[in-house]
Design brief:
Layout lengths: L4 E7 L6 H9 L6 E8 L5 H11 L3 E6 L4 H11 L4 E4 L5 E2 L3 H12 L4 E8 L5 E3 L8 E3 H14 L11 E4 H6 L13 H11 L3 E13 L11 H20 L4 H24 L4 H12 L2 H6 L2 H4 L4 H11 L3 H12 L2
Parallel strand pairs: 1-2, 1-4, 2-3, 6-10
Antiparallel strand pairs: 4-9, 5-10, 6-7, 6-9, 8-10
Length: 337
Amino acid sequence: MESIVSIIVPVYNAEKYLDRCVKSIAKQTYTNIEIILVDDGSPDNCPKMCDDFAKEDSRIKVIHKENAGAGEARNTGLDNATGEFVCFVDSDDYIEEDTIKKCMTLIKKDLTNTAVFGLSHFNDNGTLSPVNISVDKTYFDKAAIKNELIPSFFTTSFGFDIGVVCKIFYKKIIDDNSLRFMSERDIYSEDALFLLQYFSRCESASIVPENLYKCYENNASLSRAYKKEREEKLDDFLVKALKITQKEKLPNTAGLHIMARYHGAAMVEYKRIVLSDLSFSEKTKILKSKYNNKLLQSTLKKEVFAVEKWTLRLFYGCVKLHLYFLSYLLLWLKAHN
């Protein structure tokens, strides 16, 4: 008998997209699934929509809870999942109808318990932009997961990123290690910490080199507001992630790729400063203080630059050399590109 796959969907303010998302899951050619819709106190019509979906499909389970963020919603889904395997889908995204089938077929063939697959971005115009998948094998043993796959997540060098979507997880690994998500209200990229711990405990994994997941890009929702607490969350993420690499005895390359991810996320925050309504003098003053962050300074080394895209290498090279005007110009160009 086919294993049950629990597909967990955190739902919040997504009434415009939820029908598309749920239908894409319900139409899966792999039918032995349970769909867990976690209504995270959504203030729109999503709670009723979820209940209506459940009336139409007995495989759909709805959980209504007070709003606490996507991380806690995923935890609630995990607490109620009965499947041997787990998959996460965000409520404004969707998956191709043979996604679970292709993943589970390869898991069975390779005798693994975890699968990773690719994604395409799309916008309101319906334009699909597939992320290039550049990996030359479909099976990773434990050593390859630690030495190659985990580092690749943080710099997307294989075309897969640190999000928990686009993966099939083995629930026993999650339960045996009491893995749960931190709240995104407390830390940057709660997905990445979960992923880092999970894959550190994997014996093997299968790769489906296809862009089966469709990720919605709502540019209008991107915040330009600068918030100091984001930097604190980002620093906390780096410290915690590096501690996990030490605890799990991951190779040095993992730490370097995590630092590179930290650089990329920090640059996003710097761009928000450039785009803010602050005066030029205020912006440059804040940026200089950011550049003097001791944790950031500790990551400005050639080993980290070596695994980064050239744009990050150029920008942080300027920061390291105190070429602040040039670094500001690069940020302005990047922010307005």
